[in-house]
Amino acid sequence: xxVIEFDDIDNRMVLKLVYYGPALSGxxxxxxxxxxxxxxxxxxxxxxxxxxxxxxxxFDLLPFFMVAPGGLRIKVKVYTVPGQVRHDxxxxxxxxxxxxxxxxxxxxxxxxxxxxxxxxxxEKNLAFVGLDIAAVxxxxxxxxxxxxxxxxxxxxxxxxxxxxxxxxxxSALEGWGVVETFxxxxxxxxxxxxxxxxxxxxxxxxxxxxxxxxxHRSEDNSGDSxxxx
Amino acid sequence: MSHPDDMEHVFGADKKLGDVIxxxxxLPLLERAAAHGNILLSVIDADGNVIASSGKSPEIDFITxxxxxxLEGEPAGAIIARGDAEDAERLRDTVGIIHAALTVxxxxxxxxxxxxxxxxxxxxxxxxxxIETNRRLAVSESKYRELxxxxxRMVEDRTRELELAHTRLxxxxxxxxxxxxxxxxxxxxxxxxGFITSNINTLGRYAGKMREMLSSYRDLSSHxxxxxxxxxxxxxxxxxxxxxxxxxxxxxxxxxxxGAERVKKIVSDLKGFSHIDDxxxxxxxxxxxxxxxxxxxxxxxxxxxxxxxxYGAVHGFRCNPALLCQVFLNIILNAAQAxxxxxxxxxxxxxxxxxxxxxxxxxNGPGIPPSIIARVFDPFFTTKDVGAGTGMGLAVxxxxxxxxxxxxxxxxxxxxxxxxxxxxxxxxxxx
Lengths: 229, 431
Hints:
The complex is a heterodimer of chains A (229) and B (431).
Chain A: E1 5-7, E2 12-20, H1 27-37, E3 47-49, E4 59-67, E5 73-80, H2 88-95, E6 100-106, H3 112-128, E7 138-143, H4 153-160, E8 167-169, H5 178-197, H6 199-203, H7 207-214
Parallel strand pairs in A: 2-5, 2-6, 6-7, 7-8
Antiparallel strand pairs in A: 1-2, 3-4, 4-5
Helix pairs in contact in A: 5-7
Chain B: H1 17-20, H2 23-34, E1 39-45, E2 50-55, E3 62-71, E4 74-84, H3 88-222, H4 227-239, H5 242-274, E5 282-284, H6 286-296, E6 306-311, E7 317-319, H7 321-338, E8 344-351, E9 357-363, H8 370-373, H9 393-403, E10 407-413, E11 417-424
Parallel strand pairs in B: 6-8
Antiparallel strand pairs in B: 1-2, 1-4, 3-4, 5-7, 8-9, 9-11, 10-11
Helix pairs in contact in B: 2-3, 3-5, 5-6, 6-7, 7-9
């Protein structure tokens, strides 16, 4: 568990969440949906660094910000990594000091091999940046449930339940399962941070408050209102 | 594997407003907005530090308009405007416009900063990995280089061993065939030499008897019948030079016997040198072995050569005499071949304080140039013409002395001659 930044003097904390997964599994779509669904209050704009000309640089960032009752200013940065195999260096860089990972898998049976390959890559890269996959908060999302020819849910759950990793079914395209995935990850990250920095005792910030702050749905659910002004 | 803590650059480190926008980037914006009327525009960061400021505040009756700037959703600073109280609406609009413009700048700069950030991170990471790869390669390279070096040395050592073993085998074969030849020759020569010696002895004895008989006849004739007959006999005696023959016969027989004796000695030396009778180690008298070698080499040593034998009392040395003779032979032969006329060869034997036998063989030949002196004991090294020398002589000598736990060395000064020094251990001996 590594909080990328915790500044006692400034009384602020920066957390890093990473959306990982094979190419075209819907990581960016997840962030776009979160951006649309969640309230603009306390979050920044979605930054999509879709630079086709520069193939190394390819990630998205959705930042959140909150202040705990105790005054701790918490910034949560949600990143996606490029799924293509050739962008491994970018993935390693983004994974540095990650506080939590959401693995976005493609539910289609044809993509099973890619999912496993990417998961192995996650394990390897976490080890590379000095993180243990068993210790990092990790949520598994099986996306594209709206598509045909997908792996049955009971089969997926049978495969993954022995690992104890939470599994969420989703269709980012249709907009469901996305917030659930984010909330599940946020909850796990809270538990991990709380164990180390006693967020509840020292800051009066409990898990529900933390998760709610991050995933508060906007009233009209229309999404793209400009942040802050 | 590099550890993330080794990389000082961590992607995604939080940014302050000052990291994202620069003064000279926003100052023109503020200057244009503040150009007309009494208005002071400032952009400050979260800690209240002024990033850029322009215009002039009214002294009295002013109002302040403040607008937060958000960076990734977090308040990161503010736009602060001071203007005339009656112009409040215009002030608000101005701040609104500046805020909108700043948001665009911040958003675009943020993307650039993040891109640069990631780029830097990726490049450093790749660099770290390359350094690590390079280090591992260097380690493995040096390992292989060391291995290659050792291997080369091992191969050289083994080659030398094989060459020496081969040389020994060749030498043994050579000695064996010389031995067989010598045995045959000795046998063939000894038989006729036996009757030649015996016959010459007999002939000498017969000649003596005939001389006695002739002398008796001559004595008788001096008292004989007539003066004419007596004269005739005396005349014949003198014309046939019988007196001279009588004197010469003894010399002839004596010389022939001497010659025969020499032949016998040569044959015996040859036999002794090849040691056909004993291939095993025996205790030998080194001085006698050197003499024997010099005898065998008599025809190779120029007739006018001066050989000085300075033999000291040395203990018996246990070895295969054939091999040791080979050592002396090779060294003396080299000396003989190095200088034709005027050769002076000094052979010295002695025991040093530790009971070791020290043999020095010194010639007054042309000497050995310093550039090659280190190689004279190398197998196949020769200065003779192709086909003239095998380059094995001194190598064999070195090998033999080494085998008996001794040392052989060479000192030479060009133009002054060469000295070979052989030291044989004290312990291996005295039987």
